[in-house]
């Protein structure tokens, strides 16, 4: 009997049930939705997977993110890359819609998309492997070395990026694992960085996040759908295949919270250039008030110190703007910010700002970049397409 | 001018603002609550901090947890221990109510309690340091070594435990850091283990969690407030100071997901003894159906294999029951379950079940205990009290 049971336990082999069957069973047997008087569960909320742009960039930021960098195994060619992309297109679509991936081994964990988005990016190696070096955007290379950097290999670089965001951490965990696993014969995970914001519902939608130093973080972002957003974020087609795509700069910024805690509140506010309670510039009273960098106090001293973070980060021209869509992290190796910046052109928009901050930023003693990676983010695609189809078939 | 600003930046010293002032400013300057048409934010939800029992045990599980073990610095005495407890009582009460801790360095991060609970536990060393060795419960020692254990020091043991749970990950991060920091001259963090369940709202309240193997996990739990719950969880007063307290066994159980994925669905269900879609026992159709361990198929073979997890875990007597309140984890070192078990008596309730599972459990090839710790959880206390007051002043 024990023998038989063991055979039953281990037998069977590849009899993975049909995906539709599993999904239907998971819903049909009822997780009890109908029986409760609760508000409609939010797990079913979805974000459109197909479109002109990939989702996950102009999407109202979800509560949780995982950034996964993968390295291509040696000896691959363009066809293998396209294979990976088609798998991610198919499984991304399924998961974003609340259906299990093909061959999903934990299909019940796929049933709550919770606004899941899957965003794919390309590191520099993609273009060599594909034999398309001439198509690589000029800015797609490691950022210049900044004096403040203390970069660690384990948080830097990568050939491919998967950005997985959702309002539920179980959804993110399942989707991340499923998408990396399905291509593991072709690519290996180089690093995974997980981040969080406030849970959905904790604060009203649209509240700017706070980082773990307690600062309101991301106030100057352009509004999704605005002309500013489109101009800052979406690549106009340089090179042509990237039209409607963008770039991601991901910086892992460790916060030196123990020494930050030694600063009193006024000193913190002068370092940032904003107050901590409302996130208002020191010359204003509300978060979205424009900072007045010319304002001085009765002694003629600038109210917003020129070396403060907001003063140093202030764009010197219209190019120096980009979208911040970061996440907090709190891991055994420390706490900080996964600073995620999206822009049409890294060199024109991101680098000058970062260069200026590296040279002088009153916040620098308390923030240390320990990871850095740059990716080209191909445009969106339709049901027949996949990430990078304009590159690989262009 | 730069000189002056630098002085303004670095000057000031210890001028931490009054707590009430900061709190009021944070709310008063308006995070925009009133201006929106959204449902009331859920960040303001609170769980009572004082009571007969500590909160965080019979509390409907929050979405996020951090378990922090601390080690006492050498040379402490009972007075120092009481000092730590009084700090945690005061700051725990404030944070659970949505107010900053005393001297909170990031007071704005304290304004959304999101059902925050802070639960304190004692490791074996507490009783020696306090000169109260005779008051140590007999079961408060490392669990017996089990054959399946692959324990790592970095996830095991500890003199004190802080269990911090809330529905928001920022709240958990802030409270965890604040509470450990405020006693760092007396105790150092030994390990931190962070876990998650579904976000609030993803599924209806009361849905049993799924672990990352996809299994419904925790079905057999007693209902909070029931006679079963009270009998299983709350210590009746052995020793007397622990009346209304309990014990926590925290096991970090790594899941071998890559090999688990090689099993087909029927084999998985036979290993667990439940189906995966609904979590129903193989002899039933709904999650809460009682398993029928005597049922056989047409060949006389038990429908629920005797070596399946549910069959091996089944209590052999009324003592062998306890509360499971675990959390998923997904960290760089692997994914799995923070198995948290609460019981009046570890030796009588938890150990025999774990012993039986270690000897034979069809799930064992796919689950590896890599961390283990046992704590006595003192009873609740009133506004004038603190965790362990019945021990230290008893």
TrEMBL record, chains A, B:
<feature type="domain" description="Dyp-type peroxidase N-terminal">
    <location>
        <begin position="54"/>
        <end position="197"/>
    </location>
</feature>
<dbReference type="InterPro" id="IPR048328">
    <property type="entry name" value="Dyp_perox_C"/>
</dbReference>
<dbReference type="InterPro" id="IPR011008">
    <property type="entry name" value="Dimeric_a/b-barrel"/>
</dbReference>
<keyword id="KW-0732">Signal</keyword>
<keyword id="KW-0408">Iron</keyword>
<comment type="similarity">
    <text>Belongs to the DyP-type peroxidase family.</text>
</comment>
<dbReference type="GO" id="GO:0004601">
    <property type="term" value="F:peroxidase activity"/>
</dbReference>
<keyword id="KW-0560">Oxidoreductase</keyword>
<dbReference type="InterPro" id="IPR048327">
    <property type="entry name" value="Dyp_perox_N"/>
</dbReference>
<protein>
    <submittedName>
        <fullName>Dyp-type peroxidase</fullName>
    </submittedName>
</protein>
<dbReference type="Pfam" id="PF20628">
    <property type="entry name" value="Dyp_perox_C"/>
</dbReference>
<keyword id="KW-0479">Metal-binding</keyword>
<keyword id="KW-0349">Heme</keyword>
<dbReference type="InterPro" id="IPR006311">
    <property type="entry name" value="TAT_signal"/>
</dbReference>
<dbReference type="InterPro" id="IPR006314">
    <property type="entry name" value="Dyp_peroxidase"/>
</dbReference>
<keyword id="KW-0575">Peroxidase</keyword>
<feature type="domain" description="Dyp-type peroxidase C-terminal">
    <location>
        <begin position="209"/>
        <end position="380"/>
    </location>
</feature>
<dbReference type="Pfam" id="PF04261">
    <property type="entry name" value="Dyp_perox_N"/>
</dbReference>
């Amino acid at each position: 009997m024990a023998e038989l049971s063991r055979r039953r336990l281990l037998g069977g082999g590849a009899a993975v049930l049909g995906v539709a069957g599993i999904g239907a069973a998971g819903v049909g047997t009822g997780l009890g939705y109908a029986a409760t008087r609760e508000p409609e569960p939010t797990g079913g909320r979805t974000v459109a997977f197909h479109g002109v742009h990939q989702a996950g960039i102009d999407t109202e930021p979800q509560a949780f993110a995982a950034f996964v960098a993968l390295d291509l195994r040696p000896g691959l060619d363009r066809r293998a890359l396209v294979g990976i992309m088609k798998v991610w297109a198919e499984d991304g679509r399924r998961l974003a819609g609340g259906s299990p991936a093909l061959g999903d081994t934990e299909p019940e964990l796929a049933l709550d998309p919770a606004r899941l988005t899957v965003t794919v990016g390309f590191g520099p190696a993609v273009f060599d492997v594909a034999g398309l070096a001439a198509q690589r955007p000029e800015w797609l290379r490691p950022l210049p070395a900044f004096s403040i950097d203390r970069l660690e290999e384990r948080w830097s670089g990568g050939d491919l990026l998967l950005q997985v965001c959702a309002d539920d951490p179980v959804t993110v965990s399942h989707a991340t694992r499923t998408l990396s696993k399905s291509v593991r014969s072709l690519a290996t995970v180089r690093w995974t960085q997980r981040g969080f914001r406030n849970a959905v519902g904790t604060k009203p939608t649209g509240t700017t996040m706070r980082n773990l130093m307690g600062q309101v973080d991301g106030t100057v972002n352009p509004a999704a759908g605005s002309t500013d957003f489109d101009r800052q974020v979406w690549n106009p087609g340089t090179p042509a295949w990237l039209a409607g795509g963008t770039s991601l700069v991901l910086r892992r910024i460790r916060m030196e919270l123990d020494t930050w805690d030694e600063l009193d509140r006024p000193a913190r506010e002068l370092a940032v250039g904003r107050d901590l309670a409302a996130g208002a510039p020191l010359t204003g009273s509300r978060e979205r008030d424009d900072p007045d960098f010319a304002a001085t106090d009765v002694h003629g001293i600038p109210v917003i110190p020129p070396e403060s973070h907001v003063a140093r980060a202030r764009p010197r021209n219209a190019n120096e703007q980009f979208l911040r869509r970061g996440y907090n992290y709190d891991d055994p190796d420390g706490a900080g910010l996964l600073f995620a910046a999206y822009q049409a052109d890294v060199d024109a928009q991101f680098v000058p700002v970062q260069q200026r901050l590296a040279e002088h930023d009153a916040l620098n003693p308390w923030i240390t970049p320990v990871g850095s990676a740059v990716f080209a983010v191909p445009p969106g695609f339709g049901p027949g397409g996949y990430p990078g189809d304009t590159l690989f078939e262009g």
